[in-house]
UniProtKB/TrEMBL annotation:
Record keyword Cell membrane present: no
Taxonomic placement: Eukaryota, Viridiplantae, Streptophyta, Embryophyta, Tracheophyta
Keywords: Auxin biosynthesis, FAD, Flavoprotein, Monooxygenase, NADP, Oxidoreductase
Keyword Transmembrane helix: no
Family from the record: Belongs to the FMO family.
Residue ranges the record marks as coiled coil: none
Reactions the enzyme catalyzes: indole-3-pyruvate + NADPH + O2 + H(+) = (indol-3-yl)acetate + CO2 + NADP(+) + H2O
Pfam families in alphabetical order: FMO-like, Pyr_redox_3
Cofactor(s), by name: FAD
Protein name as it appears in the record: Flavin-containing monooxygenase
Metabolic or biological pathway: Plant hormone metabolism; auxin biosynthesis
PANTHER family the UniProt entry points to: FLAVIN-BINDING MONOOXYGENASE-LIKE PROTEIN (AFU_ORTHOLOGUE AFUA_4G09220) (PTHR43539), INDOLE-3-PYRUVATE MONOOXYGENASE YUCCA6 (PTHR43539:SF38)
GO molecular function terms listed in the Swiss-Prot or TrEMBL record: flavin adenine dinucleotide binding; indole-3-pyruvate monooxygenase activity; N,N-dimethylaniline monooxygenase activity; NADP binding
Length: 345
């Protein structure tokens, strides 16, 4: 077996991660004739999409907002492409721009060497197939009637609850804080698309008021079902804290009908028994954590102050990418978002 060299000199940018944003950055560079190296810790591109998402997942923003630069989605794709279609598109994209990530390479440290004028990136090779893919539990027939507690009421928790309902399980949803639920569409357009369009003409506070009025008309008063809204409007909140509004794809109707029960925050977890903050106790057959994730970038990036040391979240949103010192660029992530905004990069 050939041993890989200890040091490799890369005559161009290093891109960390072969997700949609990494692929987009590599393609744009390739288009300009700039070679780059993409390092990917998993053994495939878009590993979050391929290994860590549920099969029924669809994009919840229309496809025109999710396509990568230089190559549109195939015309025959529906408005909201499925996970399988999105992965197929990303594979085709990588092929088209001749992107060949170095797989199974985990970046441990990235530091700018000021005396050399180069970035020094330290990687460890992982075992082939080292995708640490946590599989989302699949509720099959054997799980019918099971009591499942879903923790976290972001888009994941809400969609997982709906799936559980549709497979005859009995889900409860932990909601420990306020949340903005918006219909996925309003006035015949996607809520996201309409919001972005309105923002071109009106201030954010006004667009927020509009979104809340239409949401109230279409969804009713969500507080009546245990889902209080934050005091700050949905766009303002996204902008200031990164918290994404939930785009309802049918979960709210199941909450209204009582098929999904809303619970307060968890105080303690004991085997199958959950104690809530109001001291009520209840037994569940399964617990699904849909509590989001944290960026690992602060762990390895030893340059700049892009991330809060307290919680690992970026210090401010990067609507169009972020340029730091020494040719350091961040593209495609929101504070908490999986999709991020890749359009601006
Ligand atoms: N169809 C699609 O396109 C989908 C897109 N997405 C996107 O992926 C990204 C990630 O979404 P998601 O996985 O939902 O993660 P998020 O970070 O958006 O949501 C996590 C949720 O978990 C809650 N939470 C965290 N810790 C706890 C706790 N200890 N107890 C109770 N609740 C807790 C948070 O609430 P709190 O405010 O209390 O911290 C929050 O509501 C988002 O951008 C989302 O829009 C996700 C699913 C589907
Ligand atoms: O799903 C995400 O991560 C999003 O970014 C969705 C989103 C961001 N801003 C919005 C405004 C209105 C509706 C959806 C969104």
């Amino acid at each position: 077996m050939m041993k890989s060299p200890r040091y490799v000199c890369v005559p161009g940018p290093v891109i960390v991660g072969a997700g949609p944003s990494g692929l987009a950055a590599a393609a744009c560079l390739e288009e300009k004739g700039v070679p780059s190296v993409v390092l990917e810790r998993s053994n495939c591109i878009a590993s979050l999409w391929q290994l860590k998402t549920y099969d029924r997942l669809r994009l919840h923003l229309p496809k025109q907002f999710c396509e990568l630069p230089l190559m549109p989605f195939p015309e025959e794709f529906p408005t909201y492409p499925t996970k399988q279609q999105f992965v197929y598109y990303l594979e085709a994209y990588a092929k088209r721009f001749n992107i060949k990530p170095v797989f199974n390479q985990k970046v441990m440290r990235a530091e700018f060497d000021h005396s050399l004028g180069f970035w020094r990136v330290k990687c460890v090779g992982l075992k082939e197939g080292g995708g640490d893919g946590v599989r989302v539990p699949v509720v099959d027939r054997g799980d019918r009637g099971k009591k499942v507690l879903v923790v976290g009421c972001g888009n994941s928790g809400m969609e997982v609850c709906l799936d559980l309902c549709n497979h005859d399980a009995r889900p409860s949803l932990v909601v420990r804080d306020t949340v903005h639920i918006l219909p996925r569409e309003m006035l015949g357009r996607s809520t996201f698309g309409l919001s972005m369009w309105l923002l071109k003409w009106f201030p954010m506070g006004l667009v927020d008021r509009f979104l809340l009025i239409v949401s109230r008309l279409l969804l009713g008063d969500t507080a009546r079902f245990g889902l209080d809204r934050p005091r700050v409007g949905p766009l303002e909140l996204k902008n200031s804290s990164g918290k994404t509004p939930v785009l309802d794809v049918g979960t709210l109707a199941k909450i209204k009908s009582g098929d999904i029960k809303i619970c307060p925050g968890i105080q303690r977890l004991m085997r199958h028994t959950v104690e809530f903050v109001n001291e009520r106790k209840e037994n569940f057959d399964a617990i699904i954590l849909a509590t989001g994730y944290r960026s690992n970038v602060p762990f390895w990036l030893k340059e700049g102050q892009m991330f809060s040391e307290k919680d690992g979240l970026p210090r401010r949103p990067f609507p169009n990418g972020w340029k730091g010192e020494c040719g350091l660029y961040a593209v495609g992530f929101t504070k908490r978002g999986l999709l991020g905004r890749v359009h601006g990069c």
